[in-house]
Fold each of these.
Amino acid sequence: MLVYLLAGVYFGVVLVKSEAASWYRIQEMFRFESFHMYGLIGSAVLTGMLTTVLLRRGNVRSRDGQAITVTPKEQGWQRYVLGGLTFGVGWGLSGLCPGPIYVLLGAGLWPILVVLAFALLGTYLYGVFKDRLPH
């Protein structure tokens, strides 16, 4: 567990130092005033794509020897549109994506507790209504 804790702390430091958790940087992105966040998001997308390709092509195993597989996504557009709209509305209202919530909390920005509470509420509500949502 220590390895995961250290990886999380490292990721948090990277988010703070790269200003990915900065409300001002996010506002610059939404106003098309700066390329900074688009570069960060683009590099994350490319890293995710490369990792997915490597996991699909390689015979990769977990630490305990189980095969790691990447299952194909389901077809259909409704779930992605609804999910994207929900994510976007939350991002627009709070001014940040959910990733830096714990980072900002760790940095001592206590008002982020409101965002955390609503993120947890949204997760709970998804669990309640998931059987009625398009998947």
Note: The mean pLDDT is 86.
Amino acid sequence: MSKNLKNVLVTGFALFSIFFGAGNLIFPPTLGFISGDKWLWTAFGFLLVCISLPLLGIVSVALVGGRTEDLTNKVGKSFGTILCSVIMLSIGPLFCIPRTGATTFELGVQPLFGNASPILVSIIYFSITFIFAVNETSVVDKIGAILTPFLLVSLFIIIFKGIITPLGSPVNTGLENAFSKGFTEGYQTMDALGSIIMAQMVVGDLILKGYKTRKDQINMTIKAGIVSAICLGTVYGGLLYIGATSSGIFPKDTARTGLLISITQGLLGDWSKIIFGGAISIACLTTSIGLTATAANYFSKLSKERVSYKSLVLAICVFSCFISNYGVETIIKLAVPVLVTAYPVVIVLIITSLLSKYINKREIYAGAVYGALIVSIFSSLSSIGIKISFVENIINKLPFASQGFSWVLPALIGAVIGAVIQGTENRVQSTEHR
């Protein structure tokens, strides 16, 4: 095996590990379940967000210099700091970390011990997270290295069984706008948000492997991305399909974790809740420890070490412990306003950065981003029941609004306005120099 091929495979599996979170497994089966016979359209939207956007996010960071700040600071340094902080809070103590604890309880503990206290379980769970994260031990990495392949084998068995002997057939569930449903549900994995944070680590690893030029880094990232995409597509696509085959079997109001338990038990029997639930629980714990350490490191550096790493680890664990007791479904609902606001901004940043060869002025980046941000803020307010009638009417008339992409035209208009401002400034400067 050549050195390049080996590095492509190693980096590809590393990318897969970064984006593959045990807590994310609850989304594809539910999407398939509510989509029924439209599951292919939903899968297309979901996989676009969960596979294509994260990989493009890493490529875009590599294109603009290899650091997260090189991407976010194109709009402005203060904006970049705020955006990175919001993303880090989202993939950290606000949503992702608490969701791992809630998922562990609902998938790993509750099916085996029906009377278990969620408060006690979360205290134990986040105490373990604290012990490992505060000491920055490598033990958890070794556990993850053993457990992730085991979890993957379990998933492939479930998917294979679900395809060969499905629980049922996909039925018409009456879902409209299946593509946009899959696209916006993909926000909940937060992979695209995390990609622009993790990209710096991926590019740094490629540099250590000897790929010094930007061209080589981008080339390796794309090839490794294909490896990662195949793995992610197989897992997410397979889970979506087996969810669709159960669309006519279980009650429509079945919770996400309950659906995954019911499907695995239906395919593999009662013993699956012990092995599969246990594997997911430990995988969630490794994710929790990794995200806690990452978030604590980020905010400690942001404070210029005025707030210590250990203090932040403690604060994150305590806060996450509290939030996790609200349960998976509530945490998902709490995340919606933040994700509806942040995702369009990150998507626009990624796309414009991929076009950085043609866009070389901050005004264009800023115009596109702020155009999307204005609309996404109002969409976010609407998602929590705060509606401003005349603004709602305008947004609803925008192209693609019914599909959930009302921010597209404002982003384009913002980019044009930025280009006009840039052109005006250039003409003024040219006149002054005469």
Note: The chain has a mean pLDDT of 86.
Amino acid sequence: MKIGLRILLGYFLIVGLAAWFLLNVFVAEVKPGVRSTLEDTLVDTAELLAGVVADRVRGGALEPSPKLDLMQDYARRDIEVDIGGVIKRRLDYRIYITDARGIVVYDSSGKDAGKDYSRWNDVYLTLQGKYGARSTRTVAGVDRSTVLYVAAPIRDGERIIGVLTVAKPLSSVQVFVDRSQRKIMQRGTVLLIVSLLIGLAFAWWLARALGQLMRYVSDVEAGRKAVLPSLGDNEIGKLGRALHAMRTRLEGKEYAEQLMHTLAHELKSPIAAIQGSAELLSEELPPAEFRHFLDNILSQNARQKQLIDKLLALVRVEQQQGLDGAEAVDIGALLRQVAADAAGRLQQRGLRLGMTLPPVAPLVRGDALLLRQAIGNLLDNAIDFAPHGGEIGAAVSASGDAVRIVITDAGPGIPHYAAGRLFERFYSLPRPDGGKSTGLGLPFVREVAALHGGAIDVANGERGGCRAELTLPLPLTL
């Protein structure tokens, strides 16, 4: 599982558990909280009314009173009140009064007068001087039918002479409970969705940055051209720059060591040849031999210069991780320039160059100078191996998302033992005319192809000779 997905799942698990816990606490506390608030209100109401009717309860009988009549009328009153968007159309209080034995002497609902309520907790506990309250379902098993009863003692001095109970159905406040729970769930859901979106954005950003860094590391590990992506000025960006700096130092040190060893090895032969010729020139020699050894010094010196120049060019492209200032390059025009560069050598060897170009030359995005040198190296190899008076082919074709430059010759081809070593530095095959090569041309072409996101393939042709194919990607836009 990718790290971005792990982080997202972990983040969402934490947020989800926290939200679930909070929502459950809120939802679980809404109903008890409303019930406690209702009970508190009933306590105040019961105590107030008990004090009001105390002087009317004497000797177990309830004396007539305008106050009691008002309480009776209260139950039959119609109202219409908007409470936070909830319309209240009836009054829900029920009030009943019992004497000191628990017998109902007054009931605002008018249905239970004369009944014995001494066993109900609200009356029973209050007559004992305790706090009396109960909740009773009017329909068995239906929680919404619960009615809350809260009692207060009616006193004559310190003596309890009766009980006044105020009752209110919980269904009257259930609508507020439901609305509160619904709002909590809705807003909790919104919170979860917003948290998920934030988590997705964060995980996407982190996975994208880590993915770019991992691709860079993979390219470095595989030895491919790799440019450090722009990762910003955060911890990941700092880590990427640190890895790039470490890579540059390690590769630079290793590369310099390899280069020095290789260069020293390759320069041994021309230096030894120059030294031997110079020692012989210090003696008296016939003019012909003198000229021979002098030419040898000059040719070996030219070979050293060519070797160093090509090696420096290879070093530059090997150390270059990306193209600076890439531009649109007309491959047809570029191939004609390369042909013009090689015109002298082609004429010297009596070779013909047959070019095949499409009606509309494709454009690639890259470095024109590097591409010109790379194609020139391929053409130089073809000239070296093509038989005198023969023909060299140079063709350009575009298909799909790539352009192909193919250079062919009718030479001896590639021996099987050399097929896997063509792109090794300083490895070269003997030329038919005895000439020598630096062995740096094809490695240079490979590096240039990699810089452009392309590839180079050199193999024997189907009809003999050698076939070199340079593939370059066509840009989506120029």
Note: The chain has three domains: 3-179, 225-321, 325-478.
